[in-house]
Amino acid sequence: MFDRCGPQVGRCTRRRGLGLAVALAAAWTLAACQPSRPAFRGIDVTGATYGKTLRLTDQHGQVRTLDDFRGRVVMLYFGFVQCPDVCPTALARAVEVMQRLGPDGTRVQLLFVTVDPERDTPALLREYLAAFDPGFIGLTGTPEDIARAAQEFKVYYAKVPTGSGYTMDHSAQTYLIDPAGRLRIVLKHEQSADDYAHDIALLLREFDAGA
């Protein structure tokens, strides 16, 4: 499921991504065969062969990898600053999720990977993300770096020409990476802050129990 977002687009259109859809369908089947697993509300992709590495530069010029966030649950989202609807909704929901988690909200890190590195400069990412939460981290790199990260997480994005420039089509799901650095859950854009907070709480509980 993808979203087309841009400064001249008042709404987002939906598309189906066959590769990711097949992978998620397989994950649903696998989860159904393992009733002992926690009852996650997102799609359980534990053991996925993708989503293992990430290496990009944050809005302060520091190189970041998933290892930097061990001990916290990472909410990983791919988007872009000029997205008029879907990305702001996802970021506002992330703020709400952290609030719902109470003290455990400090154990969650939001990573926003731009799919529009040509326009989303580090300075613009700093300003944009600070409007939601100063602790949110924006990640960017060369177009090749972004393409590599998107491929690793099976994220679709594409530049779409418009009359005055271009906008971006992009996937809208959020990935949850557990405190051990493993990709565990895929949450759909349509899911609620309660769903997100529920699954993050389960991952934190599991980690604290030494699972």
From TrEMBL:
Keywords: Copper, Disulfide bond, Metal-binding, Signal. One of its GO terms (molecular function) is metal ion binding. SUPFAM superfamilies: Thioredoxin-like (SSF52833). InterPro entries: SCO1/SenC (IPR003782), Thioredoxin-like_sf (IPR036249), Thioredoxin_domain (IPR013766). Residues 31-205 form the Thioredoxin domain. Pfam families: SCO1-SenC. Cu cation binds at residues 83, 87, 170. Disulfide bonds join 83-87. Residues 1-31 form the signal peptide. The keyword Metal-binding applies. It comes from the Bacteria. Belongs to the SCO1/2 family. PANTHER family: ELECTRON TRANSPORT PROTIN SCO1/SENC FAMILY MEMBER (PTHR12151), LINALOOL DEHYDRATASE_ISOMERASE DOMAIN-CONTAINING PROTEIN (PTHR12151:SF25). This is SCO1 protein.
